[in-house]
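Board notes (copied after class):
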Amino acid sequence: MAADAAEEIRGTAHGTAPVPLSVLDLVTVGEGRTATDALRTSVDIARLAEARGYHRYWVAEHHSMPGVASSSPAVILAHLAAHTGRIRLGSGGVMLPNHAPLVIAEQFGTLEAMAPGRVDLGLGRAPGTDGATAAALRRTDRLNEGADDFPQQLAELIRFLDDDFPDGHPYRRIHAVPGPVQATSPGGVQSPHRPPVWLLGSSGFSARLAGTLGLPFAFAHHFSAQNTIPALDLYRESFRPSAVLDAPYALIGVSALAADDEKEARRQVLAAALSMVRLRTGRPGLVPTPEEAEAYDFSPMEREFVQTWNSNVVHGTADEVRAGLDDLQKRTGADELMLTANAHGGDVRLRSYELIADAYGLPTPA
């Protein structure tokens, strides 16, 4: 892999943060807002994150969810690249079974050409949606086959990124462009960078695969908290040094929302939890307002779900969120915390990242 891959993976902690802090963006759309509003918020948060010393900014692939406008990560990342200059940008992640590996290699090769040395390629094997939508994306109803084929798809994608299919392979004469083939063409000059590949997961499968291949690993603690420590342990136990990393590197996604007072934080996370209730019961929609959530008549089963869900959301004042994040990092040993703030309003999300940056004494713009 060109350049020093480990340097492009490992971040630097700033201020009093125990590890590097990053951002995961679902491009959430609240009631009364448009996707345009949500994407403008993403630009604002990315600029804030860059100015305040957050390490990377990832966008997650989801489909057929009205309240999540991140169906096309590569398109959004290109937009963010045009509005930032230093922060790492990446997918958290691209759901590889939904796509041909060559297409992803081309998309992220293009992003790398737009923002050299700043692009991460995070990959997952889940569909990022329901089964029917996944079938429409993949033009097949054999969804289990897609997940089972993930290691082969991953290997093919890496071959395209490195342009190193062996002689005799049917794809030997096929090249992902932009990519390394341009350096071997007459007069060609190629960037020394290529996007580092990360594996994402919410269970043990990708943890073990990432460890075996010596790749960095990102775990979805924000929606699979009960599996976090077992998956990280499995990753570390399975890790084999590679040309990419000589030691494990794991980040975890964390739902975190800070507000100016504890009551407001509770109001905001209740609205986000109601959105999850509707999603989990087959009624996906826009993120409701806090007022609607407060007036909603939760059933006993729904209330139990909300309590369980919100127990894994680090929320409150900035100092409370900082304490919660510090504790989580100590318990998991995560090398990086990637924060996702789910709320109805973009201003609330922006304020949360600002408050957390202040709480840790992250750099302030000159």
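Comment from the instructor: The beta strands are 21-25, 56-59, 88-95, 119-124, 197-201, 217-219, 250-258, 314-316, 336-340. The longest strand covers residues 250-258.
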